């Protein structure tokens, strides 16, 4: 518990530095150059979100862009909504994806299908559950060109739709400020490279040079893998904060939250049971155990050991609450939700544990209506 409290001090310090020093996407700058931008938007069973996303893309003030919208074999009305939006705005290019070949993750294939139809010099990849302020594309192009970047990604405001996600997301988000901090991504001396799937832009030649989505076709976290390849190839990558101008949905509801947690741990277990066990232990100690141990030590009095345990676990619990409180403010989901962070930690721990236990008897995982086997996953998943 003393070690856990120390870990939380490091996390809080990293969070404060990240919030203070991460550059923001600057809006309202005029572009002297306006290369054609192809927005590539894959969508599978997104009838609840695709219309909103396309409306915000249609409202962009950038003069030269197209929205290549890929219906990835949807079983709902996603394709119909795309066609209606395309009829109202000729900049929206509807694409029906061909059946996914073996060995590809679904979204990665849909992105390739969009790329095949794109005409732009700059490629902007996004998700169907993302929404944009009117000047986002203009601001991104200005940042990319004026800073002479090879790739740009933006941190959106993450929306949480239900109670369980609101109490879980702040706990998970604390870790984004350490390994995946924009400060690490923007430092050319660091190896960290990462894209947010809701917004990343690069010139066509850079995308092709790193192998397109075909080079990450096995990756379940394809945006992270592609960002890593860009950084490893020596290209200049920048991450900016755009939470006032872009928002994205992390988990649609409690069901997708639970499945998402299991989805993350299953391929990890299939590649290394030992690493998975270590992660499960770390997650349990950091996110959940301080709270019941603090309550237990408060009523169990057995001398010095219980006093030390009470002090350490209470400190760890308080620091975890501070982290959750800071994140609820950053995420704008209501400060009272931080009080339920013990529940959030329990959900994350349980989701990872159930996913690992299921992986012991299965070598497949379900995602967006498709089943993927171990052979579909990259063996660099752990690195991502």
Structure description:
The protein is α/β, with parallel strands linked by helices and 384 residues long. The chain has 2 domains: 2-12 and 254-376, no CATH class; 24-163 and 175-249, Spore Coat Polysaccharide Biosynthesis Protein SpsA, Chain A (Alpha-Beta Complex). It contains 14 helices and 12 strands. The chain has helices spanning 2-21, 50-58, 78-88, 106-117, 136-146, 163-173, 182-185, 204-209, 222-232, 254-271, 273-287, 290-299, 304-331, 341-360; strands spanning 37-43, 65-71, 92-96, 122-125, 130-132, 151-155, 157-159, 200-203, 237-241, 246-249, 364-367, 370-373. Strands 3-2-1-4-8-6-9 form a 7-stranded mixed sheet, with helices on both faces. Strand 11 and strand 12 form a beta hairpin. Helix 1 packs parallel to helix 13 (304-331), helix 6 (163-173) crosses helix 13 (304-331) and helix 12 packs antiparallel against helix 13. The radius of gyration is 22 Å and the shape is globular. The two termini are 28 Å apart. The mean pLDDT is 89.
């Amino acid at each position: 518990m003393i070690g856990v409290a120390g870990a939380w001090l490091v996390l809080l310090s990293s969070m404060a530095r990240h919030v203070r020093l991460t550059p923001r996407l600057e809006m309202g700058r005029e572009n002297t150059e306006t290369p054609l931008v192809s927005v590539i938007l894959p969508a599978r069973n997104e009838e609840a979100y695709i219309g909103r996303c396309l409306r915000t893309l249609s409202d962009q003030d950038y003069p030269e862009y197209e929205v290549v919208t890929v219906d990835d074999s949807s079983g709902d009305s996603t394709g119909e909504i795309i066609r209606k939006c395309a009829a109202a705005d000729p900049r929206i290019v509807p694409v029906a994806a061909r059946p996914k070949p073996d060995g590809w993750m679904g979204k990665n294939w849909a992105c390739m299908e969009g790329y095949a139809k794109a005409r732009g010099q700059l490629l902007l990849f996004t998700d169907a559950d993302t929404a944009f302020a009117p000047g986002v594309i203009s601001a991104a192009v200005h940042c990319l060109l004026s800073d002479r970047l090879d790739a740009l990604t933006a941190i959106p405001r993450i929306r949480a739709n239900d109670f369980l996600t609101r109490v879980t997301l702040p706990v998970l988000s604390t870790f984004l400020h350490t390994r995946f901090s924009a400060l690490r991504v923007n430092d050319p001396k660091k190896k960290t490279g990462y894209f947010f799937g809701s917004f990343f832009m690069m010139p066509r030649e850079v995308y092709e040079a790193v192998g397109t989505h075909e080079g990450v076709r096995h990756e379940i976290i394809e945006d992270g893998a592609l960002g890593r390849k860009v950084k490893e190839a020596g290209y200049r990558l920048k991450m900016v904060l755009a939470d006032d101008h872009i928002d994205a949905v992390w988990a649609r509801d409690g069901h997708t939250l639970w499945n998402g947690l299991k989805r993350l741990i299953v391929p990890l277990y299939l590649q290394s049971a030992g690493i998975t066990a270590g992660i499960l232990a770390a997650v349990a100690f950091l996110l959940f155990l301080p709270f019941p141990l603090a309550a237990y030590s408060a009523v169990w009095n057995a001398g010095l050991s219980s006093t030390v345990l009470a002090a350490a676990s209470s400190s760890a619990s308080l620091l975890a609450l501070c982290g959750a409180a800071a994140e609820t403010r950053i995420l704008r989901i209501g400060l009272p939700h931080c009080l339920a962070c013990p529940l959030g930690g329990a959900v994350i721990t349980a989701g990872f544990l159930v996913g690992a236990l299921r992986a012991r008897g299965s070598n497949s995982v379900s995602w967006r209506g498709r089943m993927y086997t171990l052979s579909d996953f990259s063996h660099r998943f752990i690195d991502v």
